[in-house]
Please model this.
Amino acid sequence: MGVQYLHTSGVLAHKLPQANSKEVRLYRNEQGSSGGSTDSLNPSFNADNDYQSLLTRVASRDQVDFSVSGANKGMNFYTSIRALNDQGLIYNSYAKTLLFRTNVEFSPSTKFRYFGRMQFGYTTGNVIDEGNTIFQAFQRPANYEVYYPDGTLTGYLSGRRNPLSVVLYQVNLNQNYNGSLFNQIDYNFTPTLKLTANAVATYTETRNQQFLPKLLSSASPLTNNGSESFSRTIDWQSQAYLNYMKTFAENHAVTVMAGASAESSQTNGANEAAVNYVSEQVLTLNSGTIVPSGTTTTATANSRASLFGRATYSYKGRYIFATTIRRDGSSRFGPSNRWGNFLSASAAWRFSDEKFMGWANGFLDDGKLRASYGQTGNESIGDYTAQTTYGFGTYYYNGISGIAPSTTLGNPTLQWEATTQKDVGLDLSFLRARLLIVADYYIKNTTNLLTQSPLPAETGFANYEVNYGSIRNKGFELSITGRPIVKKDFEWSITYNLSIQRGVVTSLNSGMAAIQGNSADAAGNAAWLIQAGQPLGNFYGWKQLRVYPYDQSNAYNDSWQPLTPNFDQNGVFTGYTFQGKAYTGTVHSLYGKGVKLKGGNVEFANIDKDSVIDNNDRTILGNAQPKFFFAVMNTIRYKAFSLSFTFNTQWGDKIYNNAAQTLDNYSTSNVIPQPYVIYNMWRKQGNITQVPSYLKTSVGDVRMSSRFLEDGSFVRLAYAQLNYTIPAKLTRKAFAQSANIYVYGTNLLMWTNYSWYDPEIISSNPLQMGQDNGSYPRRREMGLGLNIFF
Model:
């Protein structure tokens, strides 16, 4: 029997600078708007809020685990219950979970074994997107009041919601029920032939209730609205295989396995929406008026089947060979491309067992050289992506329901995405495992890469899924583990992990280079150049050189080299020089969107050497792939105490800070830029800065450029734990077998020049990596735990 308790507290790891009320008014003055001064008659705009502090709190998580296990001849069992109460970083965000699991193993004879597992779970909580909530708070001016003088919360002010009202009054309640049942039998026909068959069924039910009160409405007159949704997913998987194992002449071991598997998943859902609830305390749908266009049902399903086999051969454990074949079929592809064949093979040589290695027996415990070749398939697309789907119930004309095709065109020619990996590895163990080295070099080629591609608006569709092309990733991984000190009361072990990977586009099925992401000459998301022979992650846009200090700074010679304007002591322009000498030749100037650029406008690199900054001046700005990943893990034990801590780093990558771009591009009048932008924007002739003027952005100053590209390198103290094992003589007094208490922390320290919350971002699309859209702020957590086993 065991009892475990863990309490964790977390805080926002660090806050970002946000414009205060003084800085808001400074920016309003620059805009020339009435918001630049304090209106003593309108207290709604006289606040000075720190939204990051208003919205966040000390997060807490309490976890209790209780387990019971036992065994007798031929049977053993394990049962556990977990209760979890997680109070999130944002006010009013929480999740409460209850999990129950039971394992049973029954072996009445040496021939037969049964294993079963039942698991049930329940989770309820108010779902708040923490990253998006904080990011939205950045877009609300700090001088907008949060509370009215009577103490009630404000709602909308000048088109911006009160973020505190959102987190306290917007309802997004989730209830999730799930259960799974797993059964497996093993039957030994002979000592060399065994049948294994297993099956698992999973049931998941989710209910969601949403409600937006009138306080958060932007409509006129004010309205409230809500919805209730329900979804049910039933999954099942089953497989069976025969395994033949035989050793011949003592030294030759052969294993042959063959089997089949099948799986299926089906999800059904329904949603009802309502408006104008009679009561904002009774949130059942009959309190409001049903909205037909928001009342829908959904259904989706997929299935997969596989045949597989494996054969291995080992001679004295010194020479090892293995091969595997799979044939996988998926319902997600068109009828002619549903099946894919995937092969793999590997070989290993334990050279430390060779006679000629006898000279190393004193220090080399084990040495093995490995090589492998393997293929895997990917079907991660929508269930009906190969078909053009139609929607019902959300399209109305004169109150009559209609049908319309989705915005994604079906593609029945889609094929399996396949990744082929070649790997060479080396395993070394020295000095009775005091030093371990594992090294791998690999090449991964992915063909028929699955991704979405845009379609011209004339087609009536927005995009379609395609087999885009092929990419190759080359990498090297090295792990070194050492135990420099091994004593009775003191021990120290350390592990170094190094990973280097480079990804390259090898071919495109269209045969032409393409731009992923923001292809327009406008502010917005990042853009990536996808071109055969070029690295993955190449950001593509305009390179910002500077902001023109003077109107006369937009001047170039015949070779488009910049000229230096000169002024007398009264500030009167007197002419140009080039490389310190007077220039009397033709003066050329650059134009943006038909307008001659002036002081306060951005000077972009003139790639094609003409007088217009346009699409032809885009270039590769940097790359999102890190040069390397590195981690160091230490464990130090002294008597009953042990200390573990991990440092990790990611180095040399670029990140497009789209969160900062959204704030700082001047495109929305009620969104206030960051303080650095407010203080450093160009205001008058002669200003030296990298921030353009607010008044002159229509000529392309805020287009996707290198201005928002930042270094993503960091070093982080990712984890630390101090553990104390309570002496057995004390635990026995409490009728316990063992007990330990520990404290730990995560994300404790970080060193980086990246300006947003965290440079360790996740990119799910290999063609669009390295963009930060205002990712969830990583917590800094501290925890205290106690484990007792009876």
Observations:
- DSSP finds seven helices and 44 strands in the chain.
- Residues 446 and 711 are 28 Å apart (CA to CA).
